[in-house]
Automatic annotation (TrEMBL):
<protein>
    <submittedName>
        <fullName>Uncharacterized protein</fullName>
    </submittedName>
</protein>
<keyword id="KW-0472">Membrane</keyword>
<feature type="transmembrane region" description="Helical">
    <location>
        <begin position="133"/>
        <end position="155"/>
    </location>
</feature>
<feature type="transmembrane region" description="Helical">
    <location>
        <begin position="12"/>
        <end position="34"/>
    </location>
</feature>
<feature type="transmembrane region" description="Helical">
    <location>
        <begin position="55"/>
        <end position="78"/>
    </location>
</feature>
<keyword id="KW-0812">Transmembrane</keyword>
<feature type="transmembrane region" description="Helical">
    <location>
        <begin position="98"/>
        <end position="121"/>
    </location>
</feature>
<keyword id="KW-1133">Transmembrane helix</keyword>
Length: 178
């Protein structure tokens, strides 16, 4: 197998520039889609929903979009720069290598970004929340494998699973699974 040299500083500078552009575009897209409406529910009922931890479909969909999109955009930009051993938020203890860096990380990021984009393109819906819940449930198995492999994965996966279970719960609830 042919060894590939590590990315140069110029590559990281380009990646950082691309990330900044993606963040600006994503922020503009999110800001242009944001609508602040008065709740359709009576204020006293809305207070009750808030007290018991209730979220509206719109709030849940937005949370899911930000969660999926945040990971998606950064993975598409540069998986190693953000999540590699020396990255901003290291999820991996070993280098990703050219296969994971070039295809798998970016492809996974593209899929997450696509899920997030649907919130802004078609608006929040029960169907979208179901899709977010199903994908959240399916990714739990690889997350557990990461916790079990301490040689290649950092301990950040433990709190990530806790946060992920929260996302799974609210999207499954908004999706009508229970």
């Amino acid at each position: 197998a042919e060894a590939h040299p590590p990315p140069s500083l110029a590559t990281y500078s380009y990646s950082v520039l691309m990330l900044k552009i993606l963040v600006v575009i994503s922020s503009l897209a999110a800001a242009s889609a944001l609508q602040v409406d008065r709740p359709a529910v009576k204020p006293s009922l809305q207070k009750t929903l808030t007290l018991r931890g209730g979220l509206t479909l719109e709030q849940t969909s937005l949370i899911g979009a930000l969660y999926n999109g945040g990971f998606g955009v950064t993975l598409m930009a540069n998986p190693d720069l953000f999540f590699g051993p020396s990255g901003f938020l290291p999820y991996f203890s070993t280098a990703l290598g050219p296969v994971a860096q070039t295809f798998f990380g970016k492809a996974f990021g593209a899929m997450l970004t696509g899920i997030a984009a649907m919130h802004f393109l078609d608006g929040p819906s029960q169907s979208l929340c179901k899709q977010m819940a199903i994908t959240a449930a399916l990714i739990l198995y690889p997350m557990v494998l990461c916790v079990m492999d301490t040689a290649n994965f950092t301990a950040i996966w433990k709190p990530q699973i806790v946060a992920h279970l929260g996302i799974l719960f609210i999207t499954a609830k908004a999706g009508g699974f229970f």
